[in-house]
Amino acid sequence: MADSKRSAVLTVLAVLFALAAIEDLLKPFHLEGPTTGLVFFGTRLAGISNATLGPLLGIFLLIYAAGIWQMRRYAIYLAYVYAIYVAINLLLFTATNPRPASQSEMIFGIVYSILALALTWGAAISLTRSKAELT
What is the reported pTM? Predict the structure, then answer.
């Protein structure tokens, strides 16, 4: 459909994934602090692995965000790949790292996990529901 439009939800999600992509592209520069690193399958990366995988994930997210923005069908596949990755990553990080030291860190972790799962799976579901409008 040439005159199909993105919903407001998909527009917001495209912008959020583009911002997340920029954050991952900048991971090697440690702008968030010296211990900043991409968490990849439950492990916080450092050094060359962080400098390599951070930008790679950033590129993936840029392609994904562009797919949502342009309402491309391939975005559905990327949405499910990313949602599954986020779910596995959260599960492994929680299982392999010690419990947070303070209650505020624990609350942050819970809120972060809920938002990460809701946004990634929400995007996948929204794209699936908009499948007819994707080119």
Answer: 0.90
